[in-house]
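Reading is simple: each integer encodes one residue's backbone shape. An example follows:

___
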Amino acid sequence: MPALAFTQDVTEPALKAAFIYSFAKFTNWPVDAVPAAKPLLMCVVGDDAVGEALEQAVKARMIGGHSLTVSYTAPLPQRECHILYLSSAKASQAGPLVASVRDVPVLTISDGAGFIELGGIVQFHFENGRLRFAIRVQSAKRARLQVSSQLLALAKLQ
């Protein structure tokens, strides 16, 4: 009997959500940034589809003993977020948002062009039809975040 191969279609929001979750797994925050009893807060600005996909991706998962919470329906003060994903649709807000958390332990991520140059930490881009990412190590250090060497090995470093 011939083997059947099944492929699963993965949407762009689901793929981005999986990447964001992986970024969280391979990033360490300062001890004072995420108190022991508090969840790791993942904020999504400007893309409800990514927010919904992220909510599904992190459901019932934990990282470093912290539960994971996703906020995308109401704006929160970005300084309360541990991860801040800003969609390219909100690129006009990127500069002020990144500046507001520049020296705060917030992992900033976007798919907007020029995000890294604005001081963001991770920027998605497509290369040969595949989702890739760049990391600005200097911005991560300024935010007191430690990004795993395993993740850095997969990134285009800026």
In short: Residues 12-25 form the longest helix (14 residues).
